[in-house]
Specification:
Structural class: alpha/beta
Strand content: 25-35%
Distance between the termini: 43 Å
Radius of gyration: 16 Å
Length: 186
């Protein structure tokens, strides 16, 4: 039996004691809604409790949702069984850094509040032609600067995509700000 990686244990503990409700979808999905296709295959990468995944599935997309936390995935599976049996959603425990998505496999990829810079090029490669990436994460307000974007960094990380929408929020009351990016593979 394999040992749970420390990062998975951290997230399992966090989700074990978290509110069990499915969160609202990320702002980047709401703001970039016009760029969502009406059909296709989507990935919610580092999905947490699945707010983005359930939103995409309710929009008619066939969704795969990956997270390193088995607690988060178990919660999604239970919620889906109780509330959304008919949607096309497949939650899966997966270390997305060790096992990134395969080439040309998704029409939509959503990443919210997760940053692994070396993974960014693999996300572009995983998009099918005309596929759309929705990305949102912090620019300020986290204690570990490795997980913070620099101003204007998302368009640079995804320079191979055609930008459709970009936004960087001002600091909120808690000293946090985020960058939102939607880009299309052409």
């Amino acid at each position: 039996m394999s040992k749970t990686p420390p990062i998975a244990s951290k997230w399992n503990a966090r989700y074990a004691y978290a509110n069990k409700d499915v969160p609202k979808p990320a702002s980047v999905l709401i703001e970039g809604d016009a760029f969502l296709p009406h059909k296709g295959v989507a990935l919610d990468l580092a999905c947490g409790r699945g707010g983005n995944a359930f939103y995409l599935a309710r929009r008619g997309l066939s969704v795969t949702a990956w997270d390193i936390s088995s607690a988060a995935i178990d919660g999604m599976i239970a919620y889906q069984a109780q509330h959304h049996r008919s949607i096309r959603l497949t939650p899966e425990v997966r270390d997305v850094v060790a096992l990134p998505p395969e080439l040309n496999s998704f029409d939509v990829i959503v990443v919210s509040r997760f940053l692994d810079r070396p993974l960014c090029a693999k996300l572009v490669d995983a998009l099918r032609p005309n596929g759309v990436l929705f990305y949102q994460t912090f620019t300020a307000g986290l204690s570990n600067a490795d997980y913070l974007l620099q101003p204007g960094e998302l368009p640079d990380l995804f320079a191979a995509l055609k930008p459709c929408y970009t936004f960087e929020s001002p600091l909120d009351e808690q000293g946090r700000s985020e960058a939102l990016y939607v880009g299309r593979k052409v």
